[in-house]
Design brief:
Elements lengths: L1 H16 L5 H4 L14 H10 L15 H18 L7 H5 L3 H26 L2 H12 L2 H7 L9 H11 L1
Helix pairs in contact: 1-6, 3-4, 3-6
């Protein structure tokens, strides 16, 4: 049930982000145990939704024969790695529709997509917010007190040693 939910969430998020691409109409949402996933087309469409120009559709086969399916599966892994996804599955896992590995592939694509959104949001943030956050951490008196060895006097053991030697 979790597998089915994750694929639905990923597809729904992609559809919200990319209004021009409707993955749900081209390909019905599937469970990770659906044997029709072995052709790889669903994952190639999913990858093209999260990053528009990453899939070269001229290299994609229809997935009608085992050899075509293996070519698509290999291409899925190549494209996902090119994006920066962590890939732990082999083309055989896609061909055999190994549900756990399909789930990991989907989660990895989703994680990459969320990281990209976070980067965009971080870039959109005004520089003042980043500066204020840094100043708060650096100027925290509680942190400064905890960092000193002598309980908050502001001097360290090394400074006390130098002071004592200077007085002799």
């Amino acid at each position: 049930m979790v597998h089915f939910f994750l694929v639905h969430v990923m597809v729904d998020e992609c559809q919200k982000e990319e209004k021009g691409i409707d993955l749900g109409q081209r390909r019905k949402k599937k469970k990770t145990t659906d044997k029709r996933l072995s052709d790889g087309i669903f994952f190639l469409e999913l990858l093209s939704v999260v990053e528009k120009r990453v899939v070269n559709w001229g290299l994609v086969t229809k997935g009608e024969t085992e050899e075509d399916k293996k070519l698509n599966a290999t291409y899925i892994i190549s494209v996902a790695r090119k994006l920066g996804c962590s890939i732990f599955l082999l083309p055989e896992d896609i061909l055999e529709v190994n549900p756990k590995m399909i789930l990991i592939l989907t989660a990895s694509i989703m994680y990459w997509s969320l990281l990209q959104k976070a980067k965009v949001n971080e870039d959109d943030r005004p520089p003042d917010e980043a500066t204020v956050a840094t100043e708060e951490v650096e100027g925290n008196p509680a942190m400064d007190e905890a960092a000193t060895d002598d309980g908050g006097t502001g001097t360290t053991d090394k400074e006390e040693t130098v002071t004592e030697e200077g007085n002799s």
